[in-house]
Amino acid sequence: MDTATRLLRLLSLLHSRPQWDGAELAARLEITPRTVRRDVARLRSLGYPIDAEAGIGGGYRLGPGGRLPPLLLEDAEAVAIAVGLRVATTTTVSGVEEAAISALAKLHQVLPVRLREQVDAIAAHTTQLPQGELPPVDGGVLVVLAAGCRHTEGIRFRYRTHDGTDSERTVEPLQIVHTGRRWYLVARDRDRQAWRTFRVDRITRPELTGSRYRFEDAPDPVAFVAEGTGVAPWDLVARLRVQAPAETVARLIPPTQGVVEALDARTCEVRFAANDLGPLVAQVTRIYWPFEILEPAELREAVHDHARRLLDS
Fold it and tell me: How many CB atoms lie within 10 A of CB 268?
């Protein structure tokens, strides 16, 4: 064996048993006890905590922190993972909370003290705003949907619509989109031959069909979900032409609040919606670039009335 292979094999043996005699390791690896000592020194230089005791009953054992290879994670990466796991403990994806708690407990055991203190400090002084009652998402459902997206494989599932109607759908999945509150699957409905968004919490019993496909007209998943959740369900839809680049306006109006589409390098169209004029007027007054209200006409009048009231105040 070359040195790298031998070190990995030695590390694997140390993982497999609480303690090894030096002669046993030498026999397993077909090397001399002196080479075992030299390889242990190499592993220690890489950050693996390997304890050694001489004499009868002694030997080598992997110390605390050896179960997670320290050379795989920089300090900042380890802290980022720990913080991310803490956030995952409050997710709406069922099953992830317990797995995140378990993984966090294991990571906490192997983190060096200096990093553990950083993670504990962040946790102690961080509070997440409650988001209200959100429907839980089955982690197993997400796994199947993600597999379909990854392998461009069709999926069949039961779906419950907003009015409670239950039906079977066969789709060609494109992407899973998380808005921060809910999870959506963007897919082409094979029976309806149209693109659709499906709320993942309303999907049950998904299964891969084995059928393959190729997209030629796939939409932008984020824009498609933004259109379907932020514009389509509402009674009044505002359309504005804004004299600013789309990427600039999108920083003010994210996909969760409206749809921004480029018309050219300097102009874009913005669409947002509501059930009455009040919220639309509030949205319009946030835009500080030159703009033109394309529709509806009553919104234009409402904005003019609001501007007059501001001037008279």
Answer: 25
Q: How far apart are CA 222 and CA 258, in angstroms?
A: 11
* Residues 152/141, Cβ–Cβ less than 8 Å: no
Average pLDDT, the chain: 85
Sheet holding 153-160, edge to edge: 194-199, 183-189, 166-178, 153-160, 203-212
Each residue's pLDDT tens digit, 25-81: 999 999 999 999 999 998 888 778 888 887 776 789 887 655 545 445 677 877 888
Q: What are phi and psi of 198, to 5 degrees?
A: -125, 125
Secondary structure of residue 189 in the 3-state scheme: strand
Contact, 107 vs 81, CB < 8 A?
A: yes
| pLDDT the model gives residue 70 | 47
CA angle 190, 192, 195 (to 5 degrees): 75
Helices 3-16 and 22-29: crossing angle in degrees, nearest 10, is 130
Structure tokens at 237: 């839809």
pTM of the model: 0.63
Q: What are the tokens at 287?
A: 């835009």
The pLDDT > 90 percentage for the chain reads 36
User: Residue 104: how many CA atoms within 13 Å on its side-chain side?
Assistant: 20
- Tell me the CA end-to-end span of the chain in Å, nearest whole number: 85
Structure tokens at 38: 């030299």
